[in-house]
Amino acid sequence: MESKRLKKIPQKVIIPLKQHLGTICEPLVKKGDQVLIGQKIGRSVSYYSSDVHSSVCGEVLAIENAPHPNGNKVLSVIIQTTESMETVDFVPTENTSQEKLISLMQEAGIVEHYGAPTHTVLMPEDKKIDIVLINSTASEWIGGKYKTPKEYASQMMDALKLLMKAAGASKGAIIVRKDDKESIEAFEDVEVNGKALKVAPLVGKRRLGYYFRDQDSNIIVASQKRIYGKKILNFFTYNVTGRKVGIGCDPTDVGVAVCSIKSAKALYDAVYEGRPYYETVITVEGTVDCPEYMLIRIGTPFKDIIESCNSEGEVAKIVANGVITGVAQYTDEVPVTKGTTRITLLTKEEVLRDESLACIHCARCVDICPVSLVPSRLTVLADQGRFDECRQMHIENCIECGRCAVVCPSKIHVLQLIRYAKNAIEGAYADAAPKESSNLKLGCCGGE
Ligand code: SF4
Ligand code: SF4
């Protein structure tokens, strides 16, 4: 199944000049300019940045601060669209040297969904990458722009080789979900270095190193359980490679570059089709009847996507990137960016009310935590600013999956409190900001 596009081009798109972590792009257009699809409209001014392209044909109406799904206003190029589908000339790349691939990724605007420009993940300053991973556990093959699972498998394999070359890495792996049978079937028997591949299950203590040796290959595909969470990179890296990532570090500190299926596909398109990153696949869920996956032009306001779906009730709240760890939006005029993965529409009845009770020590949060923390205790320590004790309880291992908050029958703001403590620890406590959310009733779970 291919992702569906919107039937109508939005009348106006809002393209933020910062859709990545790092420096904002410098605008290359001005009010009144005509632009084409794929035209570069924002240029990086530092290595830690990523270029921005127009996703439509039209006229630049303004360059001004506009809503961004992260909740802040960001300098954006506002374009009045036309029906034309004219693109700039897309020129495939024949030179795939390491230097060229790195600069191509920056020029094509390829970023990870959590914001890091992909070229900085593959070639971080002063660090050496020896393993590249494509994390496909969060997106089934249909989450991309592929006609068949086999096409997906073959493009991902090509993309992995490009990513390894860009990073100068000797080994690479694609990690699929163990219950994603279509992906597993698609990768079975794909040829790597003249040998048919077998998808390797990551079970027990068998990590990638075992399978690189067992299959006598520097490229493998492995399957594992899906891990949800906002900050899963370090946990994912440890689970897959066995390399521990320390506090305040990221996988590149242990020689691992983790890329998403989206950035891998974007690199494939940039190299083989000359196409920059101006469209992205998202999921729309909630009170609407929409196709499971939609291919959306970056800059499309949420309003246009919601209007294109059959509504099944009045929308009371819009959340970007999932109800557990995402951001509630204050306007539907906010645009889809490279970081948008999901739009959730909630009815009045579904909007959570703040009706917290004292902790009843049910331990549901403990049972469900995928990294074996004790969330109930951490919330108390966080609430009281006892950050040293939070560290002793390994709070940094929290992947912010939000499951503890979901199962808590007392509706305690478990995730918010844990995040508060983690932020304070990252800032070495000095600038601990006031708590954004605490509804903990002290005197309950060990609040001595
Ligand atoms: S403490 Fe909560 S948010 Fe953190 S990993 Fe455990 S269940 Fe997920
Ligand atoms: S924090 Fe919530 S889920 Fe955890 S023990 Fe207390 S009441 Fe139960």
Written description of the protein model:
[4Fe-4S] cluster 1 binds at residues 359, 362, 365, 408. 25% of the residues lie in helices and 21% in strands. The strands form 6 sheets. It has a 6-stranded mixed β-sheet with strand order 1-18-16-22-20-21, with helices on one face. The protein has a 5-stranded parallel β-sheet with strand order 13-14-10-9-15, sandwiched between helices. The longest helix has 19 residues, at 149-167. It has helices at 98-107, 118-122, 149-167, 181-187, 208-214, 233-241, 261-272, 302-308, 364-368, 375-383, 387-392, 403-407, 414-426; strands at residues 4-5, 12-16, 26-27, 34-35, 40-43, 52-53, 58-67, 73-81, 131-136, 171-177, 191-192, 195-196, 200-201, 219-224, 256-260, 279-286, 288-289, 294-297, 310-311, 317-320, 327-329, 342-346. It is globular and about 60 Å long. Strand 20 and strand 21 form a beta hairpin. The chain is of the alpha/beta class and 448 residues long. The protein folds into 3 domains: 4-90 and 275-346, no CATH class; 98-272, 3-Layer(aba) Sandwich (Rossmann fold); 352-448, no CATH class. The structure holds iron/sulfur cluster (2 copies). The site of one iron/sulfur cluster (SF4) has 15 residues, from helix 12 and helix 13. One iron/sulfur cluster binds at residues 359-365, 375-376, 407-410, 412, 414, 445.
